[in-house]
Amino acid sequence: MFNRKSKRSREANAELNITAFMNLMVVLVPFLLITAVFSQVSILNLNLPTGTSEALPTDEEPPKALEVVIRADKFDVLERNSGLLKRIENTEEGYDFKGLNEFLQQVKAHPEFNIDTGVTLLMEMDTEYDTLVQTMDAVRLIVRDERELDEYGNVIQGELFPNISMGDAPPEAAATTEVKNP
């Protein structure tokens, strides 16, 4: 009987001391929130090719369709119906994104392409992701000098061809070597 009494007294006096745990949480939660890395993700809407079985009327001229083929050593800018517009060779540093952007600005200024906002990027299977993203930026936006700033000090940018579709590049031999004006 004596053992029961001491057991009851021990159970009745047992309390949970969570003060130390609460102090830890008060310090730890703000610390984790402050030191967390927040990454920004931008999403680009892509137009993926769809299988259409509709036949185009033969009496109408097919619409102009601009294509940029990413090869291992160059960019080929093509008009789907008329062929190669320009071949932009790589520089010593790698792909010539600035040259591509400048040529696409000239194409956009041409009356046949100034209304169109779509372009198709065709790439070889071993194209790096970084190359794809930089090419998409060169095709989407007009890159201007840092000297051209707005009233808030931001670089002025415009749109070239924001509607981007993607696909696989045809084999090198299938590309035409004749350069035509846009």
TrEMBL record:
Biological processes per GO annotation: protein transport
MF-aspect GO terms: transmembrane transporter activity
Query: Which Pfam families does the record associate with it?
Result: ExbD (PF02472)
Where in the cell is the protein located? Answer: Cell membrane
Is the keyword Cell membrane assigned to this protein?
yes
- Record keywords, A-Z: Cell membrane, Membrane, Protein transport, Transmembrane, Transmembrane helix, Transport
| GO CC annotation | plasma membrane
Membrane-topology annotation of the record: Single-pass membrane protein; Single-pass type II membrane protein
Q: InterPro entries attached here? A: ExbD
TM segment ranges: 21-43
Database matches in PANTHER family:
EXBD MEMBRANE COMPONENT OF PMF-DRIVEN MACROMOLECULE IMPORT SYSTEM
Which family would the database say this protein is a member of? Belongs to the ExbD/TolR family.
Q: Under which name does UniProt file this protein?
A: Biopolymer transporter ExbD
